[in-house]
Amino acid sequence: MPVITSSLSNDQQNKLLSLLGNVRLHLLYKASIHGYTAAAFHSRCDTQGPTVIVAYNSAGFVFGAYTSKDYTQSNEEVIDKEAFLYSISARRYKPLKVSGITGKCAFTDVDSGPDYGALVFLYEDEPAVDSNPGTSFNFKDTDMHGDDLQLTEFEVYRVEDLGDLLTKPWRNIQWTNTKKQQLMEAILNYEPSVKMVHQARVLLVGPVGAGKSSFFNSINSAFRGNMTSQAIAGTAESSVTTEFRTYTIKAKKGGGAVPLILCDTMGLEDNLDAGLDIKDLVSIYNGHIKDRYQFSLSGPLLSDAPGYKKNVTLSDKIHCVVYVVETCKASILSQKMRDKFVAIRKKANQLGIPQILLMTKVDDACPLVGEDLKNVYRSVYIQKMVIESLGIPLNCVLPVKNYSQELEVEQNTDILLLTAVEQMLNYADNFLENQVVEDQGGVCGDPEINSSMISALMNSDSE
Ligand SMILES: Nc1nc2c(ncn2[C@@H]2O[C@H](COP(=O)(O)OP(=O)(O)OP(=O)(O)O)[C@@H](O)[C@H]2O)c(=O)[nH]1
Ligand SMILES: [Mg+2]
Protein backbone atom coordinates (compact mmCIF):
# COMPACT_ATOMS: atom_id res chain seq x y z
CA MET A 1 0.00 0.00 0.00
CA PRO A 2 1.54 3.36 -1.00
CA VAL A 3 2.05 6.07 1.62
CA ILE A 4 -1.17 8.11 1.57
CA THR A 5 -0.67 11.84 1.77
CA SER A 6 -3.04 14.79 1.84
CA SER A 7 -3.61 16.80 -1.34
CA LEU A 8 -4.24 19.99 0.67
CA SER A 9 -1.64 22.71 0.18
CA ASN A 10 -0.42 24.41 3.38
CA ASP A 11 -2.52 27.45 2.60
CA GLN A 12 -5.67 25.37 1.98
CA GLN A 13 -5.06 23.39 5.17
CA ASN A 14 -4.64 26.56 7.23
CA LYS A 15 -7.86 27.97 5.79
CA LEU A 16 -9.72 24.77 6.56
CA LEU A 17 -8.32 24.70 10.11
CA SER A 18 -9.45 28.30 10.60
CA LEU A 19 -13.04 26.95 10.25
CA LEU A 20 -12.51 24.03 12.59
CA GLY A 21 -10.62 25.49 15.58
CA ASN A 22 -7.83 23.82 17.54
CA VAL A 23 -7.94 20.41 15.86
CA ARG A 24 -5.70 18.07 13.92
CA LEU A 25 -6.82 16.33 10.74
CA HIS A 26 -6.31 12.63 10.25
CA LEU A 27 -6.71 11.44 6.67
CA LEU A 28 -9.12 8.47 6.62
CA TYR A 29 -9.96 8.11 2.96
CA LYS A 30 -8.56 9.27 -0.37
CA ALA A 31 -10.69 8.34 -3.35
CA SER A 32 -7.83 8.25 -5.90
CA ILE A 33 -6.26 5.46 -3.77
CA HIS A 34 -9.27 3.73 -2.19
CA GLY A 35 -11.77 4.18 -5.01
CA TYR A 36 -14.55 6.65 -5.88
CA THR A 37 -17.28 4.44 -4.45
CA ALA A 38 -19.73 4.77 -1.58
CA ALA A 39 -18.62 1.35 -0.30
CA ALA A 40 -14.97 2.46 -0.09
CA PHE A 41 -16.05 5.69 1.62
CA HIS A 42 -18.21 3.90 4.22
CA SER A 43 -15.63 1.21 5.00
CA ARG A 44 -13.15 3.91 6.06
CA CYS A 45 -15.33 6.74 7.33
CA ASP A 46 -18.26 5.17 9.21
CA THR A 47 -18.32 5.62 13.02
CA GLN A 48 -15.26 7.84 13.04
CA GLY A 49 -16.81 10.75 14.99
CA PRO A 50 -16.40 14.29 13.63
CA THR A 51 -15.18 14.31 10.02
CA VAL A 52 -14.63 16.78 7.22
CA ILE A 53 -15.07 16.06 3.51
CA VAL A 54 -12.57 17.71 1.17
CA ALA A 55 -13.47 17.65 -2.52
CA TYR A 56 -11.24 19.10 -5.25
CA ASN A 57 -12.16 20.17 -8.78
CA SER A 58 -10.15 21.44 -11.72
CA ALA A 59 -11.64 24.93 -11.37
CA GLY A 60 -9.36 25.18 -8.28
CA PHE A 61 -12.07 24.87 -5.63
CA VAL A 62 -11.58 22.88 -2.43
CA PHE A 63 -15.00 22.40 -0.90
CA GLY A 64 -16.93 20.02 1.28
CA ALA A 65 -18.81 19.39 4.49
CA TYR A 66 -18.07 19.14 8.19
CA THR A 67 -20.20 17.06 10.55
CA SER A 68 -19.75 16.36 14.24
CA LYS A 69 -21.85 13.18 13.87
CA ASP A 70 -21.03 9.64 12.74
CA TYR A 71 -21.87 8.13 9.37
CA THR A 72 -23.54 4.78 10.14
CA GLN A 73 -25.74 4.04 7.08
CA SER A 74 -28.85 4.20 9.33
CA ASN A 75 -30.96 5.63 6.45
CA GLU A 76 -32.12 8.38 8.83
CA GLU A 77 -31.94 12.13 8.61
CA VAL A 78 -29.23 13.43 10.93
CA ILE A 79 -29.65 16.73 12.74
CA ASP A 80 -26.32 18.40 13.47
CA LYS A 81 -26.26 22.07 14.46
CA GLU A 82 -22.47 22.12 14.13
CA ALA A 83 -22.47 20.86 10.52
CA PHE A 84 -21.54 23.25 7.72
CA LEU A 85 -20.52 23.32 4.08
CA TYR A 86 -17.48 25.34 3.03
CA SER A 87 -15.50 26.40 0.02
CA ILE A 88 -11.88 27.52 -0.33
CA SER A 89 -10.64 29.08 -3.54
CA ALA A 90 -8.02 31.53 -4.73
CA ARG A 91 -10.92 33.91 -5.55
CA ARG A 92 -11.68 34.62 -1.91
CA TYR A 93 -9.35 35.66 0.90
CA LYS A 94 -11.43 33.94 3.60
CA PRO A 95 -13.15 30.57 3.13
CA LEU A 96 -16.91 30.50 2.53
CA LYS A 97 -18.80 28.85 5.40
CA VAL A 98 -22.46 27.88 4.97
CA SER A 99 -24.50 26.77 7.99
CA GLY A 100 -27.61 24.63 7.60
CA ILE A 101 -31.13 26.01 7.05
CA THR A 102 -32.89 26.10 10.45
CA GLY A 103 -34.97 22.99 11.13
CA LYS A 104 -33.45 20.98 8.27
CA CYS A 105 -31.26 17.92 8.70
CA ALA A 106 -27.53 18.17 8.02
CA PHE A 107 -27.31 14.96 6.01
CA THR A 108 -29.22 11.81 5.22
CA ASP A 109 -27.27 8.83 6.56
CA VAL A 110 -27.55 6.71 3.43
CA ASP A 111 -25.39 3.83 2.16
CA SER A 112 -24.56 5.80 -1.00
CA GLY A 113 -22.12 8.75 -1.09
CA PRO A 114 -22.41 11.39 1.68
CA ASP A 115 -25.70 13.21 1.06
CA TYR A 116 -25.91 16.77 2.44
CA GLY A 117 -28.97 17.57 0.30
CA ALA A 118 -27.44 20.63 -1.32
CA LEU A 119 -24.26 18.65 -2.08
CA VAL A 120 -24.24 14.90 -2.70
CA PHE A 121 -20.70 13.56 -2.96
CA LEU A 122 -19.54 10.48 -4.92
CA TYR A 123 -22.75 10.88 -6.88
CA GLU A 124 -23.62 7.58 -8.60
CA ASP A 125 -20.25 6.13 -7.49
CA GLU A 126 -18.41 8.56 -9.76
CA PRO A 127 -15.86 11.32 -9.07
CA ALA A 128 -18.75 13.76 -9.15
CA VAL A 129 -20.99 15.98 -6.99
CA ASP A 130 -24.71 16.63 -7.38
CA SER A 131 -25.48 20.23 -6.42
CA ASN A 132 -28.96 21.39 -5.27
CA PRO A 133 -28.58 24.69 -3.36
CA GLY A 134 -31.58 25.35 -1.15
CA THR A 135 -31.89 21.77 0.10
CA SER A 136 -30.73 22.01 3.73
CA PHE A 137 -27.99 24.53 2.81
CA ASN A 138 -28.14 27.66 0.69
CA PHE A 139 -25.34 28.96 -1.53
CA LYS A 140 -24.54 30.02 -5.07
CA ASP A 141 -23.08 27.29 -7.27
CA THR A 142 -20.44 29.71 -8.55
CA ASP A 143 -19.29 30.46 -4.96
CA MET A 144 -19.24 26.86 -3.77
CA HIS A 145 -17.57 25.04 -6.67
CA GLY A 146 -17.51 27.37 -9.64
CA ASP A 147 -20.14 25.17 -11.31
CA ASP A 148 -17.56 22.45 -11.85
CA LEU A 149 -19.11 19.23 -10.56
CA GLN A 150 -16.37 16.81 -11.65
CA LEU A 151 -13.92 15.90 -8.89
CA THR A 152 -10.17 15.57 -9.35
CA GLU A 153 -9.75 14.21 -5.80
CA PHE A 154 -11.97 13.43 -2.84
CA GLU A 155 -10.74 13.02 0.75
CA VAL A 156 -12.27 12.58 4.19
CA TYR A 157 -10.45 13.48 7.40
CA ARG A 158 -11.27 12.65 11.00
CA VAL A 159 -11.31 15.91 12.96
CA GLU A 160 -9.53 15.38 16.28
CA ASP A 161 -10.12 17.98 18.95
CA LEU A 162 -6.81 19.03 20.49
CA GLY A 163 -8.43 20.74 23.46
CA ASP A 164 -6.51 23.39 25.34
CA LEU A 165 -3.83 23.39 27.95
CA LEU A 166 -4.41 22.10 31.48
CA THR A 167 -3.74 24.74 34.12
CA LYS A 168 -1.61 22.20 36.04
CA PRO A 169 0.61 19.64 34.30
CA TRP A 170 -0.29 16.01 35.07
CA ARG A 171 3.38 15.14 35.55
CA ASN A 172 5.95 17.47 37.08
CA ILE A 173 9.15 18.11 35.19
CA GLN A 174 11.79 20.68 36.03
CA TRP A 175 12.80 22.35 32.79
CA THR A 176 16.17 23.58 34.02
CA ASN A 177 19.79 23.02 33.10
CA THR A 178 20.39 21.69 36.65
CA LYS A 179 17.78 18.99 36.00
CA LYS A 180 19.42 18.04 32.72
CA GLN A 181 22.83 17.73 34.42
CA GLN A 182 21.29 15.68 37.26
CA LEU A 183 19.70 13.29 34.78
CA MET A 184 22.95 12.90 32.85
CA GLU A 185 24.91 12.20 36.01
CA ALA A 186 22.33 9.72 37.30
CA ILE A 187 22.45 7.84 34.00
CA LEU A 188 26.25 7.88 33.75
CA ASN A 189 26.60 6.69 37.35
CA TYR A 190 24.05 3.92 36.95
CA GLU A 191 25.33 0.50 37.97
CA PRO A 192 23.17 -2.55 37.32
CA SER A 193 22.31 -4.32 40.58
CA VAL A 194 23.93 -7.50 39.26
CA LYS A 195 27.72 -7.37 39.17
CA MET A 196 28.30 -9.44 36.05
CA VAL A 197 26.00 -7.17 34.04
CA HIS A 198 27.68 -3.89 33.11
CA GLN A 199 25.06 -2.27 30.88
CA ALA A 200 21.28 -2.30 30.87
CA ARG A 201 20.04 -3.79 27.60
CA VAL A 202 16.92 -2.04 26.37
CA LEU A 203 14.99 -3.12 23.27
CA LEU A 204 13.11 -0.67 21.05
CA VAL A 205 10.16 -2.23 19.22
CA GLY A 206 7.27 -0.66 17.36
CA PRO A 207 5.57 0.04 14.02
CA VAL A 208 7.50 1.18 10.95
CA GLY A 209 8.44 4.86 11.18
CA ALA A 210 7.54 5.26 14.87
CA GLY A 211 10.94 6.78 15.72
CA LYS A 212 12.94 3.84 17.14
CA SER A 213 16.19 4.61 15.33
CA SER A 214 15.68 8.34 15.91
CA PHE A 215 15.35 7.69 19.65
CA PHE A 216 18.81 6.11 19.75
CA ASN A 217 20.21 8.97 17.62
CA SER A 218 18.55 11.50 19.93
CA ILE A 219 19.96 9.96 23.12
CA ASN A 220 23.38 9.74 21.49
CA SER A 221 23.08 13.41 20.46
CA ALA A 222 21.99 14.44 23.96
CA PHE A 223 25.12 12.84 25.46
CA ARG A 224 27.47 14.04 22.71
CA GLY A 225 26.10 17.58 22.77
CA ASN A 226 25.77 17.67 18.98
CA MET A 227 23.56 16.03 16.36
CA THR A 228 24.40 12.42 15.50
CA SER A 229 22.79 10.10 12.99
CA GLN A 230 24.55 6.77 13.51
CA ALA A 231 21.31 4.81 13.04
CA ILE A 232 19.71 5.35 9.66
CA ALA A 233 16.30 6.95 10.14
CA GLY A 234 13.72 8.03 7.61
CA THR A 235 10.34 7.40 6.09
CA ALA A 236 9.49 4.51 3.77
CA GLU A 237 6.64 2.10 3.12
CA SER A 238 8.43 -0.73 4.93
CA SER A 239 11.01 -0.59 7.71
CA VAL A 240 14.11 1.52 7.04
CA THR A 241 15.90 -0.55 9.68
CA THR A 242 16.38 -4.10 8.43
CA GLU A 243 19.13 -5.28 10.82
CA PHE A 244 19.15 -5.96 14.53
CA ARG A 245 21.51 -3.37 15.97
CA THR A 246 22.87 -3.01 19.48
CA TYR A 247 24.13 0.52 20.05
CA THR A 248 26.34 1.79 22.82
CA ILE A 249 26.45 5.47 23.62
CA LYS A 250 29.58 7.49 24.33
CA ALA A 251 29.24 10.21 26.96
CA LYS A 252 31.48 12.49 24.88
CA LYS A 253 33.49 12.04 21.73
CA GLY A 254 36.17 9.52 22.71
CA GLY A 255 34.70 9.32 26.23
CA GLY A 256 33.45 6.38 28.30
CA ALA A 257 30.33 4.42 27.45
CA VAL A 258 26.97 5.15 29.01
CA PRO A 259 25.87 1.99 30.90
CA LEU A 260 23.08 1.40 28.42
CA ILE A 261 22.76 -0.62 25.23
CA LEU A 262 19.87 0.43 23.02
CA CYS A 263 18.77 -2.37 20.68
CA ASP A 264 17.10 -1.22 17.47
CA THR A 265 14.85 -3.53 15.45
CA MET A 266 13.02 -3.67 12.17
CA GLY A 267 9.55 -2.06 12.38
CA LEU A 268 6.36 -4.04 12.98
CA GLU A 269 3.87 -4.18 10.12
CA ASP A 270 0.16 -5.00 10.05
CA ASN A 271 0.50 -8.12 7.93
CA LEU A 272 1.55 -11.34 9.61
CA ASP A 273 4.26 -12.10 7.04
CA ALA A 274 5.75 -8.59 6.94
CA GLY A 275 8.00 -6.62 9.28
CA LEU A 276 9.62 -7.97 12.42
CA ASP A 277 8.70 -11.62 13.11
CA ILE A 278 7.48 -12.25 16.65
CA LYS A 279 9.59 -15.43 16.86
CA ASP A 280 12.69 -13.33 16.11
CA LEU A 281 11.57 -10.94 18.79
CA VAL A 282 11.42 -13.72 21.37
CA SER A 283 14.95 -14.80 20.35
CA ILE A 284 16.04 -11.19 20.89
CA TYR A 285 14.36 -11.11 24.33
CA ASN A 286 16.38 -14.19 25.26
CA GLY A 287 19.66 -12.85 23.86
CA HIS A 288 20.05 -15.32 20.97
CA ILE A 289 20.33 -12.76 18.16
CA LYS A 290 23.66 -11.09 17.46
CA ASP A 291 24.37 -7.48 16.56
CA ARG A 292 23.92 -6.77 12.81
CA TYR A 293 21.70 -9.80 12.23
CA GLN A 294 19.90 -9.14 8.93
CA PHE A 295 16.21 -9.94 9.45
CA SER A 296 14.94 -12.32 6.80
CA LEU A 297 11.51 -12.15 5.20
CA SER A 298 11.63 -15.88 4.54
CA GLY A 299 11.25 -16.72 8.24
CA PRO A 300 12.67 -16.32 11.74
CA LEU A 301 16.21 -17.30 12.75
CA LEU A 302 16.15 -20.98 13.74
CA SER A 303 18.03 -22.28 16.78
CA ASP A 304 20.30 -24.47 14.60
CA ALA A 305 21.16 -21.63 12.16
CA PRO A 306 24.80 -20.45 12.11
CA GLY A 307 24.04 -16.91 13.39
CA TYR A 308 22.04 -18.14 16.39
CA LYS A 309 23.79 -17.46 19.68
CA LYS A 310 23.22 -20.60 21.75
CA ASN A 311 24.99 -19.79 24.99
CA VAL A 312 23.68 -16.66 26.53
CA THR A 313 24.26 -14.86 29.79
CA LEU A 314 22.10 -12.42 31.67
CA SER A 315 24.00 -9.58 29.94
CA ASP A 316 22.76 -10.77 26.52
CA LYS A 317 19.10 -10.82 27.52
CA ILE A 318 16.76 -7.88 27.16
CA HIS A 319 16.24 -6.18 30.51
CA CYS A 320 13.52 -3.73 29.49
CA VAL A 321 11.26 -3.58 26.42
CA VAL A 322 10.30 -0.17 25.08
CA TYR A 323 7.29 -0.02 22.77
CA VAL A 324 7.76 2.95 20.46
CA VAL A 325 4.56 4.40 19.01
CA GLU A 326 3.73 7.74 17.38
CA THR A 327 1.61 9.76 19.80
CA CYS A 328 -1.13 10.63 17.31
CA LYS A 329 -1.41 7.00 16.15
CA ALA A 330 -1.35 5.33 19.56
CA SER A 331 -5.13 5.21 19.95
CA ILE A 332 -5.90 4.35 16.32
CA LEU A 333 -3.54 1.44 15.62
CA SER A 334 -5.13 -1.13 13.35
CA GLN A 335 -6.60 -4.25 14.96
CA LYS A 336 -3.81 -6.34 13.38
CA MET A 337 -1.15 -4.13 14.97
CA ARG A 338 -2.96 -4.25 18.31
CA ASP A 339 -3.05 -8.05 18.09
CA LYS A 340 0.71 -8.04 17.47
CA PHE A 341 1.25 -5.84 20.51
CA VAL A 342 -0.86 -8.19 22.63
CA ALA A 343 1.29 -11.17 21.52
CA ILE A 344 4.53 -9.26 22.13
CA ARG A 345 3.41 -8.08 25.55
CA LYS A 346 2.27 -11.54 26.53
CA LYS A 347 5.72 -12.93 25.73
CA ALA A 348 7.48 -10.12 27.60
CA ASN A 349 5.19 -10.68 30.60
CA GLN A 350 5.91 -14.41 30.59
CA LEU A 351 9.62 -13.65 30.67
CA GLY A 352 9.11 -11.03 33.38
CA ILE A 353 10.58 -8.23 31.27
CA PRO A 354 9.39 -4.76 32.33
CA GLN A 355 7.84 -2.66 29.59
CA ILE A 356 7.62 1.02 28.79
CA LEU A 357 5.55 2.79 26.15
CA LEU A 358 7.49 5.60 24.49
CA MET A 359 5.15 7.97 22.66
CA THR A 360 7.16 9.86 20.05
CA LYS A 361 6.55 12.89 17.83
CA VAL A 362 4.70 14.88 20.51
CA ASP A 363 5.73 17.97 18.54
CA ASP A 364 3.79 16.72 15.51
CA ALA A 365 0.85 15.48 17.55
CA CYS A 366 -0.08 18.77 19.19
CA PRO A 367 0.79 22.22 17.80
CA LEU A 368 0.83 23.66 21.33
CA VAL A 369 3.63 21.21 22.16
CA GLY A 370 5.28 21.85 18.78
CA GLU A 371 5.46 25.53 19.78
CA ASP A 372 6.75 24.84 23.28
CA LEU A 373 7.80 21.38 24.45
CA LYS A 374 7.18 22.44 28.06
CA ASN A 375 3.45 22.07 27.25
CA VAL A 376 3.83 18.31 26.86
CA TYR A 377 2.23 17.47 30.23
CA ARG A 378 -0.33 20.28 29.90
CA SER A 379 -1.69 19.35 26.47
CA VAL A 380 -5.20 17.91 26.81
CA TYR A 381 -4.69 16.04 23.54
CA ILE A 382 -1.42 14.36 24.59
CA GLN A 383 -2.98 13.40 27.93
CA LYS A 384 -5.94 11.84 26.08
CA MET A 385 -3.59 9.91 23.77
CA VAL A 386 -1.59 8.63 26.76
CA ILE A 387 -4.74 7.45 28.55
CA GLU A 388 -6.17 5.74 25.45
CA SER A 389 -2.97 3.97 24.47
CA LEU A 390 -2.53 0.20 24.46
CA GLY A 391 -3.56 -0.47 28.07
CA ILE A 392 -0.06 0.12 29.49
CA PRO A 393 -0.13 1.55 33.03
CA LEU A 394 0.09 5.34 32.92
CA ASN A 395 3.30 5.50 34.94
CA CYS A 396 4.99 3.40 32.24
CA VAL A 397 4.06 5.80 29.43
CA LEU A 398 6.62 8.41 28.42
CA PRO A 399 5.95 11.04 25.75
CA VAL A 400 9.10 12.29 23.96
CA LYS A 401 10.24 14.34 21.03
CA ASN A 402 13.17 12.95 19.07
CA TYR A 403 15.58 15.13 17.19
CA SER A 404 14.47 15.10 13.57
CA GLN A 405 15.21 18.44 11.90
CA GLU A 406 17.31 20.31 14.45
CA LEU A 407 20.98 21.15 13.97
CA GLU A 408 21.71 21.69 17.65
CA VAL A 409 20.65 19.94 20.82
CA GLU A 410 18.05 21.68 22.91
CA GLN A 411 17.67 21.59 26.70
CA ASN A 412 13.96 20.72 27.00
CA THR A 413 14.16 18.01 24.34
CA ASP A 414 17.15 16.51 26.20
CA ILE A 415 15.32 16.63 29.54
CA LEU A 416 12.36 14.66 28.17
CA LEU A 417 14.64 12.14 26.44
CA LEU A 418 16.90 11.67 29.47
CA THR A 419 13.90 11.29 31.79
CA ALA A 420 12.80 8.39 29.59
CA VAL A 421 16.27 6.79 29.77
CA GLU A 422 16.38 7.15 33.55
CA GLN A 423 13.06 5.30 33.75
CA MET A 424 14.32 2.57 31.41
CA LEU A 425 17.35 2.00 33.68
CA ASN A 426 15.14 1.77 36.76
CA TYR A 427 12.96 -0.81 35.04
CA ALA A 428 15.94 -2.77 33.75
CA ASP A 429 17.21 -2.95 37.32
CA ASN A 430 13.88 -4.35 38.49
CA PHE A 431 14.30 -7.14 35.94
CA LEU A 432 17.87 -7.89 37.01
CA GLU A 433 16.90 -7.96 40.69
CA ASN A 434 14.07 -10.37 39.89
CA GLN A 435 16.40 -12.68 37.97
CA VAL A 436 18.66 -12.99 40.97
CA VAL A 437 15.73 -13.57 43.34
CA GLU A 438 14.30 -16.22 41.01
CA ASP A 439 17.67 -17.93 40.82
CA GLN A 440 17.91 -17.98 44.58
CA GLY A 441 14.50 -19.64 44.69
CA GLY A 442 15.49 -21.97 41.85
CA VAL A 443 12.57 -20.85 39.73
CA CYS A 444 14.01 -20.12 36.32
CA GLY A 445 17.68 -19.46 36.27
CA ASP A 446 19.75 -18.29 33.35
CA PRO A 447 21.70 -21.29 32.03
CA GLU A 448 24.98 -19.66 32.98
CA ILE A 449 23.98 -18.42 36.39
CA ASN A 450 23.57 -20.76 39.32
CA SER A 451 22.81 -20.04 42.93
CA SER A 452 26.43 -20.50 44.00
CA MET A 453 27.24 -17.45 41.91
CA ILE A 454 24.46 -15.31 43.35
CA SER A 455 26.36 -13.56 46.11
CA ALA A 456 29.17 -12.76 43.67
CA LEU A 457 26.65 -11.30 41.26
CA MET A 458 25.12 -8.81 43.63
CA ASN A 459 26.68 -5.37 43.98
CA SER A 460 27.86 -4.58 47.47
CA ASP A 461 25.13 -1.97 48.06
CA SER A 462 22.40 -4.44 47.19
CA GLU A 463 23.74 -7.24 49.32
N1 LIG B 1 8.77 15.62 14.29
C1 LIG B 1 9.27 14.46 14.69
N2 LIG B 1 9.73 13.58 13.78
C2 LIG B 1 10.25 12.42 14.23
C3 LIG B 1 10.31 12.09 15.62
N3 LIG B 1 10.86 10.86 15.73
C4 LIG B 1 11.14 10.43 14.49
N4 LIG B 1 10.76 11.36 13.58
C5 LIG B 1 10.85 11.24 12.12
O1 LIG B 1 10.08 10.09 11.77
C6 LIG B 1 10.69 9.39 10.69
C7 LIG B 1 10.87 7.92 11.05
O2 LIG B 1 11.80 7.83 12.10
P1 LIG B 1 12.74 6.54 12.32
O3 LIG B 1 13.55 6.79 13.54
O4 LIG B 1 13.43 6.15 11.08
O5 LIG B 1 11.62 5.46 12.65
P2 LIG B 1 11.85 3.89 12.91
O6 LIG B 1 10.86 3.51 13.98
O7 LIG B 1 13.27 3.58 13.18
O8 LIG B 1 11.35 3.30 11.51
P3 LIG B 1 11.74 1.88 10.79
O9 LIG B 1 13.19 1.61 10.98
O10 LIG B 1 11.37 2.16 9.36
O11 LIG B 1 10.86 0.85 11.42
C8 LIG B 1 12.00 10.12 10.41
O12 LIG B 1 11.81 10.97 9.31
C9 LIG B 1 12.26 10.92 11.66
O13 LIG B 1 12.99 12.11 11.41
C10 LIG B 1 9.80 13.05 16.56
O14 LIG B 1 9.78 12.85 17.78
N5 LIG B 1 9.30 14.21 16.04
MG1 LIG C 1 14.58 2.34 12.25
Automatic annotation (TrEMBL):
Pfam family, one: MMR_HSR1
One of the record's GO molecular function terms: GTP binding
GO biological process, one term: immune response
TLDc domain boundaries: 2-160
InterPro entries: GTP-bd, P-loop_NTPase, TLDc_dom
Cited PROSITE patterns: TLDC
Domain of life according to the entry: Eukaryota
Family statement drawn from the similarity comment of this UniProt entry: Belongs to the IFI44 family.
Protein name: Interferon induced protein 44c2
